[in-house]
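User: I've been trying to design a sequence by hand for this structure and keep getting stuck. Would you show me what you'd pick, starting by listing the structure so we're on the same page?

Assistant: Good idea, let's start from the same input. This is the structure you sent:
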């Protein structure tokens, strides 16, 4: 089962997206509310994929994605935000993330296909 780390500073969103991901057959192994907590959790949990909010309290999600995608096991990273124009294609490419999805689009997105390990 694909192991997912959810990174968002809103606990209600983390809870909602956890339910959504589990319903899609994905295993949420951890949550983090900041970039620092996410970096530590990623090293500890070694998730297959990470869902990252672009706007975090201590750093931006694009920078965090760039750090996480270079980890030895190369987790898949998907960026998200309430702002549908929070990041551009260049930001996504530069970060190494597989893409960006506005939070409103997550329920209809093929999350299993995007986040599942090959």
């Amino acid at each position: 089962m694909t192991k997912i780390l959810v990174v968002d500073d809103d606990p209600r969103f983390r809870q909602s997206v956890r339910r959504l991901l589990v319903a899609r057959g994905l295993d949420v192994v951890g949550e983090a509310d900041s970039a620092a907590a996410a970096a530590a959790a990623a090293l500890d949990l070694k998730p297959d994929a990470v869902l990252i909010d672009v706007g975090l309290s201590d750093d931006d999600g694009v920078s965090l994605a760039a750090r996480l995608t270079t980890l030895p096991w190369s987790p898949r990273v998907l960026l998200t935000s309430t702002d549908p124009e929070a990041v551009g294609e260049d930001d996504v490419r530069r970060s190494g993330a597989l893409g960006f999805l506005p939070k409103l689009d997550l329920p209809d997105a093929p999350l299993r296909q995007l986040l599942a390990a090959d």
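That's my pick for every position. To get oriented when you compare it with your attempt: The chain has five helices and five strands. Residues 3-115 form a domain with the Rossmann fold fold (CATH 3.40.50.2300).
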